[in-house]
Amino acid sequence: MTRVDTGPAVLETRPPDGRPAARPAARPAARPAARSEQGTGIDWLSGIPFIVLHLAPLALLLVGFGVGDLVLAIALYAIRMFFITAGYHRYFSHRSYRLSRPAQLVMAVGGVTAAQKGPLWWASHHRRHHRSTDVAGDPHSPNDGWWWSHAGWVLSRRSKRAEPGLVADLSRYPELRVVDRYQIVGPWLLGALCLWVFGWGGLVAFAVSTVALWHATFSVNSVAHRVGRRRYETPDTSRNCWPVALLTFGEGWHNNHHHYPPSARQGHRWWELDVTYLVLRTMAVFHLLSDLRQPSARVLATRPARSLSQ
Ligand SMILES: [Zn+2]
Ligand SMILES: [Zn+2]
Hints:
Order of helices and strands: EHHHHHHHHHHHHHHEH
Bound molecules: zinc ion
Number of strands: 2
Mean pLDDT: 86
Radius of gyration: 19 Å
Largest sheet: 2 strands, parallel
Strand content: under 5%
Structural class: mainly alpha
Low-confidence stretches: 5-34
Number of domains: 1
């Protein structure tokens, strides 16, 4: 089942029982994001796994890397990318479709294996990004520098905790709170499983695919706010960047997304490949989810941006 929306492009945090969500707080007056407000101190302790996994390609020299390992790495990337795009982003952050409670838990557990922290943390920071895009309060505006918007903010002490008030609709589920609190367990278990079943090559496949997942996901915040075309006159720097869209299964149509965040579909033209949406539509056919939110013709026909440069 799909649903066509005609409302304004707002961030919506609709609970799964269908009750209307409160409108987000009004956008603060636009002013450049200030890095001092974001906090730049790096949390080196929790940054160690981030650094160590980046050394994984060196391990290829020691253990080798067969075709089977390559297939495993690609599968680990694709499956976990889907859990991030369909789960962490379009479901937990934007509630752009409905899931049963067990399916919601599967999305959370699948997402946590991508080593991008828990669903509450992810949704909290992403909702803050939409509430304050490119102004003070945005956790990862490229106005604070490209590296900050890419990975610096993730490693900073300031970003360690979720903002509970932004994810009250999610934190009322105890099982989601457990997944979020023990988020470190998922990646470690998956890495150990890869080592146990596939040997050292399997562990390297896990590490390489995890690093690739990080940078593909991060590029939505950094590259897709700097490089690409702007179809809509959104009050931010979001852009449609096709290489990012290919790597992230549709998330690179970021100007479309900022224009209408509640939509489950981010490719607004037939040529804008949105693999995540295609999979979600297929899942809807098999009744694995429902109520896919769509942009209306009015939303799609909104006056295009006058300038492609900003
Ligand atoms: Zn954005
Ligand atoms: Zn979003």
